[in-house]
Amino acid sequence: MSSEGAEKACVEGRGLALRILLTLFCVAFGWGFYGFVLFWIGIGYMNPKLPQYYGVISLFAQFLPYLASIACLIAWLITWRFKWLKWSLAALLFLVAGTLALQRLQAYLPPGPLRDGM
Fold first, then answer.
1. What would the DSSP string read from start to end of 36-71?
2. 24-31 contact pairs (CB < 8 A, 24+)
3. Which 3 state secondary structure label does DSSP give 75?
4. pTM for this predicted structure
5. Per-residue pLDDT tens for 49-102?
6. How many CB atoms within 10 Å of residue 69?
């Protein structure tokens, strides 16, 4: 192996090691971050007097952007194309906007039925 070939292999090895470390960091961060976001969404369902259409609005305003953000992050980790990271961040921003809108909208939704045992 020539010195140029060894240098190229060393650079590729460092690039691969950096990519593996960044992937592991993103998976660990994503696990904690998305787990916390799912917990935060779940807190909304602990209200004993949920408004009537809360579940449907929450599905479209919170859960679908949540799943889209996770899917885009996974696609970014697989392909390393920057557009997937941008889509993931855009879905997270939509999730934040949907959560804030849902909180503001709760006062205007009709009351739902009481849950059993409440």
1. HHHHHHHHHTT-TT-BTTHHHHHIIIIIHHHHHHHH
2. 26/73, 26/77, 27/77, 30/70, 30/73
3. helix
4. 0.78
5. 888 888 889 999 999 999 999 999 999 988 889 999 999 999 999 999 999 999
6. 23
Helix axes 3-44, 82-105, angle to 10 degrees: 10
| Rounded-to-5 percentages of helix, strand, coil across the chain | 80, 0, 20
Separation of alpha carbons 62 and 60, rounded Å: 6
Instruction: Name the phi and psi angles at 20, rounded to 5.
Output: -65, -45
Cβ proximity of 84 and 73 under 8 Å: yes
Structure tokens at 99: 């959560």
CB atoms within 10 A of CB 67: 13
